[in-house]
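Re-running the complex after MR caught last week's input typo. The corrected sequence lines follow. Everything else is unchanged.
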Amino acid sequence: MQHPMHHALFFHGETLHLMPSGALYWPARKTLTVSDLHLGKSERLARRGGALLPPYETQATLEKLDRDLDHTRAETVICLGDSFDDLAAPNGIGESSRLWLTRLMAGKSWTWITGNHDPGPIDLGGTHRAELRLLPFTFRHIAETAETAEISGHYHPKARLAGQSRPCFLADARRLILPAYGAYTGGLRCEDPVLTGLMAKDALAILTGPRVLAIPMPR
Amino acid sequence: MTTLPPALSDWFAAKGWTLHPHQFDMLAKANDPATLLIAPTGGGKTLAGFLPTLAELGPNPPAGLHTLYVSPLKALTADIRRNLGTPIEGAGLKIRVEDRTGDTSYIQRRRQRADPPHILLTTPESLALLLSYEDAPRIFAGLQRVIIDEIHALAESKRGDQLVLQIARLQSLNPHLRRIGLSATVENPPALARFLSPQTTILEADPGPDPDIQMLETEAPPPWSGGGGRYAIPAILNEVTRHKTTLIFHNTRAQAELFFHDLWLANTEDLPIGIHHGSLSREQRERVEQAMTAGALRAVVCTGSLDLGIDWGDVDLVIQVGAPKNVKRLVQRIGRANHRYNAPSKALLVPANRFEVVECQAALDAVHAHTLDGEPRGPGPRDVLCQHILATACAGPFDADQLYAEVITAGPYAHLTRPEFDACLDFTATGGYALKAYDRWQRLKQTYGKWHLRDPRAAALIRQNLGTIIDIETLKVRLRGHGAPLGEVEESFAASLTPGDTFLIGGQIVRYESLREMTVEVSKSPGRDPKVAVFNGTKFATSTLLTDRILQIFQQDSWPDLPAHTAWWLSLQREVSRLPDPHSLLLESFPHDGREHLVIYGFAGRNAQQTLGLLVTKQMEFQGLAPLGFVATDYATLIWGLDPVTDPKPLFDAGTLREGLDQWLSGNSVMKRTFRNTAIIAGLIERSHQGRRKTGRQATFSSDILYDTLRKYDPDHLLLQITREEALRGLIDFSRIEAMLTRVGPNITLIRRPRVTPLAAPLFFEPGRIPVHGEARDRLATAQAQALMEAAGLA
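Corrected-run output:
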C-alpha cells in the first residue's frame, strides 16, 4: 500500500511533514511528534462511572502510532502532553498495552511532555519534561502568546471543508498547533475565539484525513 | 359441550341477543388445547373467546386467576374490561375482571399480585414483568386459559415471539393450560395456528359482505410529494359532516398531528373532532376514548393505536390518509367501520401524493380481489430469547435443560438448536468474549447446576428493560423566540445537523440554529432550497403484493380508473421515457443542477431500495463515478454524483452486489441502528436506568462504539450474528433485491435523457437523503481547498 501524502511545511528554516494521521515528522532530526493521545480514556470514564466506552481506543491509538513509527523510521519521539487521560491511566491501560508501548519506545529517544491531564511523572520509561527545546523549536503542551517557533497541542483543533469536519494542524509564522492524535477525542472548531485570538490572520489550517489539505484557517 | 351459566343465557335472551354459530363452536371446543378463531370485525369474536371462561367460572367462582387475556394494545384492554363488564354485571355473575398495563397504578399492580382477579387483561410487556417476579408461580397457580387477541398483529413482531415464550412458561406452570387465538385478518391460517400452539384447531367464521371502498375525489390534485394529505382537508371535512362518526387513519403520529392541526383550522363549523395516538398521554387518550364511546365525537384522527379491536359502536366511515403500504393493514382499518355483523364497511382512501394515487388504486384492486399480503417470518429472534432468559432468572434459579425443553415448544423457536440456546445463555451470563472483562455484563452464575442472577439487585434493572418495542426518539422543533413547536424530528436526524443547515418541516423551510434542552431551535429561512429534509414518512416498506400490482397498472394502455391528473402524468412519462414493467429493470440517467443523476426503478420496497442505493453507490465509487448521495422510496432509488453511469450491467451483477453487501454490512448506520435495537432487547444496553430514561442519542453513542468494538475484536459475537440476520430480513431486506434481480433477469435498460423525467421528478422532494462519503467528497474538498488558497493568494 502506498503511504498517504504528507503536507510539507517550511517553518523557521526547517522542513516539517504534516502527516494525514495527525503526527508531525521532522526529517532532519528524524523526530516524530504527536499530541493528545489520551491513552486510557475509556478506562478512566468507566472508573469514574461515566459513559461506558469499550477499552479498545488505546489499542487503536497505539496501532496508529506503530504504523507512523514504522513508516517514518523515527529515532526521536516527542509526545506533546495529555498522552494519558489521567495519572492513573498508565497503570489502567492493561498489561498488553503497556508492553506494546514499551516495545515502541525501545531504542528511541522518547520524551513525555506534561499536559493538563497528566501533570506529573508517569511510571514509564523515557524522559519527562514540562517543555523541550530542540533548536530552533520549543515543544510544549499549551501555546504561549508571546512565544515564537513553538510547537504545541492541547486544543484539538478541527476545521470544516466541503461539509465535513476534520482534525487539523494550525500554522502561522510563529507557531504550529497539532491536532489530537488519540481515538475518541473531541475537538475545538477553528472559529472559536480562543484559536482565532491565538493564530495570526494569515494562518493556515491543514486538515488531516484521507489526504492532507491546506486551507486558509476558517475564522 | 360446555354450557353457559343460566343467569348469563337469560340475560342474553332478555337483551334479545343470540349467539353466532362461531360463538357456539367456541363453547363446543372449550376443552381443545388450542383454538384459533378467525372471524370478521364486529362478529363478536372477543366475546366468543371469553364464552368458555364465563361458562367455566359460573355464577360463584372460587378466588384465583382463571383466564389471562393478552392484547397488543393498552386501549384494547380497557375497552374489553368495559365490554365484558356489561354481561357479567347484567347477569349478576361474581367474576372480577381487571386490566394491567403500563398505565395501571403501582398500588393496583401490587394488589393484583397479592390477590389476582378471575380474568386479567394485559399486554405482552406487562405479562413479561409479571412473570419475572419471584411469586409468579403462585400468581399463575390456577391459570386455566390464555386468550390472545389480534394474534396476527402480535405474530408479526418480536412482541409475539416474546409472548409465546411466556406462554410456554405458563404452560410449564400449568400443564392443562388451554390457548385461544383471535383474529380477523389472516393470510396464512396454518402458520398462525402453529404460532399459537403445536396442536391448534382452526375455526373460521362467515367472513361477511365485501367492504364499500373507494378513492376520495378531491378538487385539487394531490401534491407531487410528501405525506399527510392535507390538500384533501376540505373534501374530508365534507365527508365527516355527511357521516355519523369517521375515523381518519394516518400512517405516522407526526402526520396525524400535523393533519389534525390543519383540520382544526379548517373546521369552521366546530365539529367535535379528536385525536388519538400512542404518543399522547394516558389521560388524553382516555378522554377521547370515552367521548367516542359516548358518541360525542364526529371524527377521530388516529394512527395504528386504533387499528385493532376497539368497539367504537357507531363508526360508519373510515378514511385512510396516505397509501396503506400493506393490504392487510388496510383491511384491518376498514373493519373499524361498522361493527355490525353482516353489514358492509365503508371506507375512503386518500393518496397523499401523486405516486400514491397509483398505490391506492393497487390496494383497492387487491381488497376487491381478496388478496392479503404477508411475508413469512424467519425463526424466532435470539435477542428476544436472551431477554427471556434474563427475565426467567429474575423470577428464580432455573435449570438450563428444562428451560431449553420449554423454549422449543414455542412455535417460533421450534427449530432452535441446543448450541444456539447455549450461546444465548452464555451471552446473558458473561456478555460474550470481548466484553467478559466488564462486571456489569457478568449477570448469571451457575450454582449446584442451577442458573441464577449473580447479583440479585440486577433484577430491578432487567425488569425496567423488559419488552421488545423500541421507540424512535424524537425531538421537538421550535422557532427561536417563539413558543409553538413546528413538529418533531428523529433524534438521529437532529444529530446530523450543523448550524446553518436548512431543512423542511411542517411545510416551511427553516435554518438549524442550535439544540437546546432536547429542543431543536430553528429560524425561518424563506426562499432557500432545503439542503436536507425531515424524514417523516412511514417506515413500512410497501408489500410485494402492492408493488407487483403497481407494475401491472403501469402496463395498461390507458388508465380510466385513475384520476385524470395521474393518468396524464403516467402518459407523459411513457412519452418522454418509458414506464417500468415487471420483466425488466428500468434505469434513467440525466444531468440536473450540475450533478449527474441515476434513477433505479426497482419497486422492491423502501428498505431494499435503500440497500440498493448503498450497494450501487459503492460499486460506482469503485468505478470512479464519484457518487455523492442517494435517496430511496418504495419504488425507486435516486443517486447523484459527479460522473454519469454509462454501463449499468456491472453495477447490478447479483454476485458483485452480494460481495459488496458482506463488506458493507460491517460499517453502515443501518446496521448500527439494528444493533442498537438488538442490544437493547438482549439487555446489553439499557433503555432506562433507575427510572431515568436514557435519551436515544446517548444510547446510540455507546451502542455505536460497542458495535465497532465487537466487529473489530469479536466479529462472531452473538449480537452481531443476530444483527446480521435481522438486518438482512428487515431494514436491509436483501432478499427482496435478490427477488427483484431474479424477476428482471438480464433485462436492464438504461435510458439517457437531457433532463429530469416525469416519474423521477417527485424523488427530488423526497426526504431522507443519504450522503456517500468517498472519492467525490475528496474531489470536492480538494477543489474547494484549491479555490480557497487561490482566493487567498496562496496558490
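None of the earlier attempt is carried over here. Chain A has one domain: 7-216. The interface with chain B takes residues 46, 51-56, 160-165, 184, 202, 204, 207, 210-211, 213-216 of chain A (CB under 8 Å).
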